[in-house]
Design brief:
The structure holds three protein chains of three kinds.
Chain A: E1 5-12, H1 17-30, E2 34-39, E3 49-57, E4 71-74, H2 77-82, E5 92-96, E6 114-118, H3 120-126, H4 133-145, H5 150-167, H6 169-185
Parallel strand pairs in A: 1-4, 4-5, 5-6
Antiparallel strand pairs in A: 1-3, 2-3
Chain B: E1 9-15, H1 16-26, E2 31-34, H2 41-54, E3 57-60, H3 64-76, E4 81-85, H4 87-103, E5 108-113, H5 129-134, E6 143-145, H6 150-167, E7 171-176, H7 177-181, E8 183-189, H8 227-248, E9 251-254, E10 261-264, H9 269-282, E11 287-292, E12 294-296, H10 300-308, E13 312-317, H11 322-330, E14 337-342, H12 350-360
Parallel strand pairs in B: 2-3, 2-4, 4-5, 5-7, 6-7, 10-11, 10-13, 13-14
Antiparallel strand pairs in B: 1-8, 6-12, 9-11
Helix pairs in contact in B: 1-2, 1-6, 3-4, 9-12
Chain C: H1 27-42, E1 48-52, E2 67-70, H2 76-86, E3 91-97, H3 98-102, H4 106-114, E4 120-125, E5 128-129, E6 135-136, H5 155-158, H6 164-171, E7 177-182, H7 186-201, E8 207-212, H8 216-219, H9 223-233, E9 241-244, H10 246-256
Parallel strand pairs in C: 1-2, 1-3, 3-4, 4-8, 7-8
Antiparallel strand pairs in C: 5-6, 7-9
Helix pairs in contact in C: 1-7
The chains are: A alpha/beta, B alpha/beta, C alpha/beta.
Chain lengths: 187, 361, 257
């Protein structure tokens, strides 16, 4: 990979955007790759749009922020509007299909490489569990960018949530299934 | 010190604030005095969790004035004391740091810059350059390092303790909110295994012995009666500072010999500059970079040499010309054109630097 | 389709800044509701200058439809003092938390109390520095685990919790009003705040109300545990009541006079 892969994920506080960015960063680091993850934050302890900037590369990464993302995932209407500035003709723009009222805010023809609505919320609510919504999104990011192998992602989740899985092995199944489902959505 | 915090070396993936805590541990820092202010709080969080194992100390004071003065107290008692702050806290810190300057006290302070002036943002800036290099009611007799990534944050925080105790000037590590909060890889190491020789601390007060019998009392002041007295004291400080400067100044430069334009930046912004220069060279532009690592003492001679051989200097900083002022003061008389890329309180990307450089060429 | 009724908002509240930015379960919303109702009942919306500190209280800068000033950390009392001395017709309210009040702001409050400044200080005590992520404050209780005392506050090392109202009642002048209320008893709290403001309106002296308040975000407690903390844990160190009450004295004098 010649340049760093630039991933931007945004959603409402509580949707798990930072967790996912952290897991992806950890996974890349475990593989011996270079990762740089920086959350954005304002004064409020809670609320506000939560944005994660993640870069993965084989070499030392430069500036922590970037102008345009290779892939941008927006999980709420505010996130869609807030993150328009990070989209250009090379960006793959992914948003949750359940978001309302953003018809005028989505990238128009030619303004992004691809615009994809994925029913992540619906699938996590109906097929899996609302709690793994963000893990499904992580699967989608992996599917779209190939930035880390699936096993590395599963490994990183295991590392972070293993103690919960010990108590409830079904959670492991659910999380792993969410990753795979997310990857499928991007095919 | 009950046991070594780091044995050998290990690769870690952590935030800048955590790196600082480990560096202070590895440097043998004895005590931290601090006060909450974003974005450096986690330095205290990590420090307080780690220290029981390594027998170090901590106190959260009532404000930054006190954090600075208690740090001075720690140093006077002969401990390697440090503090950390940001933004409005840094403003308050100038009072104790003026005392440290006048009395030549080896305090170590880590500053994680955020938006200014006033409360502004808790996020990021490079707007505390003027204050950290020149704050307080004095002549800026202090040492300031500006690291640009986690490895340097570790290396220079380690170094700061040695520099402070060797030369006896208040020493600062100037980071920022991005470096504080971003996670990237770093190699933590036992400094002694890499040949680092710890400069010992020394008691100013409480030295062993009996007064009048085998020692004199330590008498320290920062007030003088006449102008002449003050003048003489300061001349001595200035002389010591001049002597120290060549040993402490650090900088980096690349591709400047034939450059039509040299980009100057410090700290986290330098990361984008490095990539930008590579990109511009690949596109055929004759561009180089100069990076001050010590902002104080500033590598003036070295920059002047570069400025004299090029046509334009692009200064990129997340402030409204604070680095530019240091540069212009350093290269007074040079005829290179100054091209500003000032974004106070906002990050600067590689793309923005490349665009500005192309515009200027 | 059901229509949910909005709870009545005090008239002095600013609708444009609602829903407010405080966390769910935050004590600030309740304290500020008491303040808003007190301002309404006293009819002083036009004269109030509301000052807020830095910390979670800073989020209240546009909370009221009253003149408001966001100041610096620990400096709200001096700013309100400055305003009051320049224009005594204004009713100045300095709003802050336990960190901004009893740590960095202690110099401002103690001196305002000692000079019997005719300002009203309203302090929300949730035992932590909340906005910065839950560090120890002067009001953190022994054994309480917080970010900068992760193994629990040790009174041997860092002292006992600050008794703000008690300290101020001891040093302030005659005519001052000092009380501690709690968000677990809003009627009583509002009564204290009203008396505090009335005290300033009457020109009698300094007025101060501390309010025990919740911070489920940094306490990491659910609703049930949050209330248990406010109603059972905090009163072990913080006694609710009026510590200095010139209205009582006035009544006594009237009775005996």
């Amino acid at each position: 990979m010649a340049k760093a892969v630039k991933i931007c994920m945004a959603g409402e506080g509580g949707q798990g955007v930072q967790s996912v960015a952290g897991i992806l960063a950890d996974a890349a680091n475990e593989l011996g790759r270079e990762a740089l993850y920086i959350p954005n934050f304002g004064v409020e302890q809670r609320g506000g749009v939560s944005i994660a900037f993640l870069q993965i590369h084989d070499k030392h990464i430069g500036a922590p922020k970037f102008d345009k993302a290779d892939i941008l995932v927006a999980l709420s209407d505010r996130a869609v509007r807030r993150c328009r500035q990070y989209v250009d003709a090379n960006t793959v723009f992914v948003y949750d299909a359940s978001i309302q009222g953003v018809e005028n805010d989505l990238p128009k023809e030619g303004e992004a490489k691809k615009v994809l609505a994925i029913p992540a919320l619906e699938i996590s609510q109906n097929e899996l569990h609302p709690r793994v919504f963000n893990i499904l999104i992580m699967g989608a990011v992996i599917g779209a960018t190939g930035v880390i192998p699936v096993d590395a992602a599963k490994s990183a989740i295991e590392k972070k949530l293993g103690y919960k899985f010990e108590q409830n092995p079904q959670l492991r199944e659910m999380n792993f299934k969410a990753i795979e489902r997310g990857i499928e959505l991007m095919k | 010190m009950s046991e070594k915090p780091i044995i050998g070396e290990k690769r870690a993936f952590m935030t800048g604030n955590e790196v600082v805590a480990w560096a202070c541990l590895a440097a043998g820092a004895d005590i931290m005095y601090g006060y909450p202010i974003t974005p450096q709080n986690e330095i205290m969080h990590y420090w307080t969790r780690l220290i029981p194992k390594y027998d170090r100390k901590f106190l959260q004071t009532e404000d930054e004035l006190s954090a600075g003065f208690t740090t001075i107290g720690g140093v006077l008692a002969g401990l390697k004391a440090f503090t950390a702050t940001a933004g409005p806290g840094n403003t308050l810190m100038q009072e104790p740091m003026s005392m440290a300057e006048m009395m030549r006290l080896p305090t170590v302070s880590i500053v994680q810059q955020r938006g200014g002036p006033s409360t502004a943002t808790v996020i990021y800036s490079q707007q505390e350059v003027t204050m950290t290099t020149q704050g307080g009611n004095g002549e800026g007799i202090r040492i300031v390092y500006s690291p640009s990534n986690h490895q340097e944050l570790f290396d220079y925080t380690l170094k700061a303790f040695n520099t402070a105790w060797k030369y006896r000037f208040p020493t600062f590590v100037l980071g920022d909110g991005y470096q504080a909060k971003l996670r990237e890889s770093v190699t933590l190491y036992d400094p002694e295994e890499r040949g680092y020789v710890r400069v010992p601390s020394e008691k100013y007060v409480g030295k062993p012995g009996s007064i009048g019998v085998d020692r004199e009392p330590g008498l320290y002041r920062n007030t003088f009666n006449t102008e002449e007295e003050l003048y003489d004291v300061l001349q001595q400080h200035f002389a010591d500072y001049e002597k120290m400067a060549p040993e402490v100044i650090e900088y980096e430069q690349e591709n400047v010999e034939d450059a039509d334009l040299v980009i100057i930046a410090h700290g986290v912004v330098f990361r984008g500059v490095k990539d930008a220069v590579k990109e511009l060279r690949e596109a055929g532009y004759k561009v180089g970079f100069f990076r001050p690592i010590t902002l104080r003492p500033f590598p003036a001679e070295q920059l002047r040499a570069v400025a004299d051989k090029t046509k334009k200097l692009l200064i990129a900083e997340s402030a409204q010309g604070q680095l530019a002022k240091l540069i212009q003061s350093a290269i007074y008389g040079a005829t290179a054109e100054i091209v500003p890329l000032f974004r106070p309180g906002v990050g600067i990307t590689t793309e923005q630097i490349v665009a500005r450089a192309k515009e200027a060429l | 389709m059901s229509v949910s009724l909005q709870p009545a908002m005090p008239k002095s509240w600013r609708p444009e800044s609602k829903p407010h930015k405080f966390c769910p379960g935050c004590g600030h919303g309740l304290v500020l509701k008491c303040l808003g109702e007190a301002i309404d009942e006293l009819g002083i919306q036009d004269r109030v200058v509301f000052g807020c500190d830095i910390g979670c209280s800073l989020l209240s800068w546009d909370f009221f439809n009253c003149d408001s000033v966001q100041t610096h950390h620990g400096r709200t009392t001096p700013v309100m003092t400055g305003i009051k001395r320049a224009n005594p017709d204004l009713i100045t309210v300095a709003y802050m938390g336990d960190g901004g009040g009893y740590a960095i702001g202690i110099g401002g409050i103690v001196n305002a109390a000692a000079r019997n400044e005719k300002v009203t200080v309203l302090l929300a005590n949730n035992t932590v520095y909340a906005m910065t992520g839950g560090q120890m404050s002067p009001c953190t209780m022994p054994g309480q685990k917080v970010e900068t005392a992760p193994y629990g506050r040790d009174p041997e090392a860092t002292g006992m919790p600050t008794q703000g109202p008690e300290m101020l009642a001891a040093i302030t002048g005659e005519g001052a009003y000092v009380a501690r209320g709690t968000t677990a008893n809003l009627k009583q709290l509002k009564g204290y705040i009203k008396k505090a403001l009335q005290n300033q309106m009457d020109g009698r002296g300094f007025s101060f109300v501390e309010a025990l308040a919740g911070c489920p975000t940094n306490w990491r407690t659910n609703a049930e545990k949050t209330w248990a903390f406010i109603e059972k844990e905090m009163p072990q160190y913080y006694k609710v009541g009026e510590k200095k009450n010139p209205f009582e004295v006035k009544k006594e004098v009237q009775q005996n006079g």
